[in-house]
């Protein structure tokens, strides 16, 4: 390294003992060229980087590798490539690390401001406001101090007013006994109510307003001062104790308007929905459809432009209650003319057509079950036997347990097991016509009984040779099977000649009811006007002229 000495003519020999002295000018500051000769002392240590420098170099190399590899690429591009899979692995790794270091939110108990023992803690809790589920109680009964003196006799309340409800399966006397009424008063109250109505006819759920007075003597039952309840829709009953100390029955009649509810409207796309939109009660729509279906097909014989007309029994009291009764009239009109008029008549409350007063007529039968036709009358391959044979009826697919109705009035000639028909019912109608109902799960009539049209005679099942729940419906004419589709029943006059005038008068009076008249305001009772006048007004001088 001593180029400066060579230029100055200095002699350099290896192993010479003379010391070499270098001036400041002889020190080289520039790096040596390629042809320059460097001399190193064999005892000098090579320059090694420190630990911090080596760590910095490693970090720089790792950053360069990460920039080259791209561990966090855009996952919205190059989906499925190696680069995308590498980015997905980075995402999953970071997510796993975040979940692993998720903090814990468990409860941490903190010391109270002052040490409290169990006894003091219970005392605080008894005086605090907290839910019972969190350990609160209704207060502690503190021990009496010497300053507290017990009372020799505690005065009772002069009267007690309570409400008691007659539950289902309970008796009237047991209900009064639980309310605290004495045995003698229970007997007297039962006698008084029995004069107005049978005690057994009081409906369950009826509420009784009971007032109990003072006890006649210590440890005896309280005397009954008054009891009141709703006996009927048009009557309230109360029993009150008079000045003479005896119980007496008081009747409180309730004004009731029994104007029938009449609802009219256009059939439209659905007779049921149109009736509901017109405000008809659900309890009235179903019997209306069943009554009409016996004479007209709801799908084929009634058009969208036809008008329906129904009248139901309707009661409303002065207290605001409403009570919907039975269907009284069912009608269908077309072009302003009545096409069907049905009136409830007779002791049985059956719906009779106005044509029952005229000559016999043919009426198509209704559908025996609510379902769809799955197999018609004629030759077919039997689903179980596997060969073609005559199918002598119509199959209606319906859910298991659906009710089956008689299509017309008649007498049950057979009810029981019948070979491949399973549980089977056969009904004989007028004019030599008969019908059969097979594959029932349960029979609801017995042989020899008389049934009405629309009466439930059994329930859909899958007994006999059947692959699933359905009704096999057959029709017979003089003992031979016929196609049940489109058959009719001869309807003869069912109203006696002596009742025709009353039947016509009843039908005429119902048709005079205006639609919606029952929903108007009730006329005020005459007694209400008398009570409205004050006594001072009666004493005032009347003006004349």
TrEMBL record:
It comes from the Bacteria. The keyword Mitochondrion does not apply. Residues 528-545 have a biased composition (Basic and acidic residues). InterPro entries: Cell_wall_metabolism_enzyme, Dup_hybrid_motif, M23ase_b-sheet_dom. Pfam families: Peptidase_M23. The lineage of its organism: Bacteria, Pseudomonadati, Pseudomonadota, Alphaproteobacteria, Sphingomonadales. GO terms for molecular function: metalloendopeptidase activity. Gene3D superfamilies: 3.10.450.350, Glucose Permease (Domain IIA). Keywords: Signal. The keyword Signal applies. It comes from Novosphingobium malaysiense. This is Membrane protein. Residues 521-545 are annotated as: Disordered.
């Amino acid at each position: 390294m001593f180029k400066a000495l060579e230029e100055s003519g200095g002699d350099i020999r290896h192993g010479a003992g003379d010391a070499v002295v270098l001036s400041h000018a002889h020190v080289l500051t520039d790096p040596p060229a390629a042809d320059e000769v460097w001399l190193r002392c064999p005892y000098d240590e090579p320059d090694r980087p420190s630990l911090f420098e080596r760590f910095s170099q490693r970090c720089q190399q790792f950053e360069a590798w990460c920039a080259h590899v791209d561990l966090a690429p855009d996952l919205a591009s190059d989906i499925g490539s190696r680069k995308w899979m590498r980015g997905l692995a980075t995402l999953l790794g970071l997510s796993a690390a975040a979940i692993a270091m998720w903090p814990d939110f468990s409860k941490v108990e903190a010391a109270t401001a002052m040490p409290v023992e169990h006894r003091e803690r219970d005392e605080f809790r008894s005086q605090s406001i907290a839910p019972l589920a969190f350990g609160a109680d209704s207060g502690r009964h503190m021990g009496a101090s010497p300053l507290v003196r017990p009372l020799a006799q505690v005065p009772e309340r002069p009267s007690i007013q309570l409400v008691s409800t007659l539950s289902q399966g309970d008796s009237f006397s047991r209900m009064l006994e639980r309310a605290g009424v004495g045995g003698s008063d229970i007997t007297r109250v039962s006698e008084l109510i029995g004069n107005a109505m049978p005690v057994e006819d009081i409906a369950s759920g009826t509420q009784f307003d009971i007032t109990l007075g003072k006890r006649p003597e210590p440890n005896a039952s309280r005397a009954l001062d008054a009891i009141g309840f709703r006996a009927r829709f048009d009557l309230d009953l109360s029993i009150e104790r008079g000045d003479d100390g005896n119980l007496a029955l008081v009747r409180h009649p309730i004004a009731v308007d029994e104007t029938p509810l009449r609802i009219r409207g256009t059939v439209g796309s659905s007779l049921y929905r149109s009736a509901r939109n017109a405000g008809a009660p659900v309890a009235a729509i179903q019997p209306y459809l069943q009554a009409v279906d016996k004479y007209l097909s709801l799908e084929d014989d009634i058009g969208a432009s036809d008008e329906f007309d129904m009248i139901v029994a309707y009661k409303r009291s002065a207290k605001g209650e409403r009570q919907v009764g039975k269907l009284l009239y069912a009608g269908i009109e077309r072009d302003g003319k009545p096409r069907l008029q049905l009136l409830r008549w007779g002791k049985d409350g059956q719906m009779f057509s106005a044509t029952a007063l005229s000559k016999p007529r043919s009426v198509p039968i209704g559908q025996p079950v609510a379902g769809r036709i799955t197999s018609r009358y004629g030759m077919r391959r039997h689903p179980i036997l596997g060969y073609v044979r005559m199918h002598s009826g119509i199959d209606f697919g319906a859910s298991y347990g659906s009710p089956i109705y008689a299509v017309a009035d008649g007498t049950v000639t057979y009810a029981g097991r019948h070979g491949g028909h399973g549980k089977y019912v056969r009904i004989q109608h007028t004019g030599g016509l008969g019908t059969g109902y097979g594959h029932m799960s349960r029979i609801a009539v017995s042989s020899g009984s008389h049934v009405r049209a629309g009466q439930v005679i059994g329930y859909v099942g899958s007994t006999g040779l059947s692959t699933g729940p359905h009704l096999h419906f057959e029709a017979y004419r003089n003992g031979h099977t016929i196609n049940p589709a489109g058959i009719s029943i001869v309807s003869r006059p069912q109203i006696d000649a002596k009742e025709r005038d009353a039947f016509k008068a009843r039908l005429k009076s119902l048709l005079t009811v205006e639609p919606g008249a029952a929903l108007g305001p009730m006329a005020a009772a005459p007694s209400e006007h008398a009570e409205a006048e004050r006594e001072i007004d009666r004493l005032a001088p009347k003006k004349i002229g």
